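Morning, I've got a small favour to ask if you have a moment. I've been staring at a protein lately and its backbone has me curious. You're getting the sequence in one-letter code plus the fold written as tokens. I've dropped the whole record in just underneath, so have a look:
=====
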Amino acid sequence: MINGKRVVVVMPAFNAAETLEATVRELPDAVDECILVDDQSSDGTVEVAHRLGLTVEVHEINRGYGGNQKTCYARALAAGADIVVMIHPDYQYSPLLVMSLAGMVAYGEYDIALGSRTLLGGARRGGMPFYKYLSNRALTHFQNLLTGAHLSEYHTGFRSFSREVLETVPYANNSEDFVFDNQILAQAIFAGARFGEISCPTRYFPEASSINFSRSCVYGLGVLKTSLQFRLAKWGWFRSSIFQFPARILERAAQPISLADRR
């Protein structure tokens, strides 16, 4: 726990047997529970997770990265989480920073905290491919223009959420693919969530998960679509299913008010 808040770590896993133990071994003791959702891995991910004492759920079919996260968050909330920290089990991000991200939310300063790979140049030092870095920077700039936010990156797989955020945003309507990551942040911005960021070192190595160039292009197009949907919803011209919020939030979405003020 931190500041009396129950901290639950979730890991959306797919073929992470080689890196899972290294990730779990560096999780702080203050984490109350770690839930791994396996998306039909073909390696020994589930066996390793059980051996490490994690709470494990296995999808009956492969649902994709976004579908995996939907299960992660639903299970964390059912487990009584006040703060949910999502980290990939591929050891690309530093588990040592879990409580730093959780603390930013636990003490009421932020509703969401992100572990940014681009602050202080960490992405390139950690080996992020140059084309991924350029696309990250270009997409982030475009998104900031359309959302009015000022995030250093939207594409990190290391993030913490307050319970209230996850109970407010309609993430069940999101894609089951990689663009889920982007959609849930756009939803939170739309709802007026307060964002914080910390610099997070990143590691790129053969066992770390990474989507290929063609999947990256599909993801990039999805990001552009999400940003345009956000702007149209803000203007009230068109509201896609991912921005179907309760009336109380839609009435005040244009105002810079935190989720705590929407109760």
In short: The chain has ten helices and seven strands. The beta strands are 7-13, 33-38, 55-58, 83-87, 112-116, 158-162, 195-199. The CA atoms of residues 104 and 143 lie 23 Å apart.
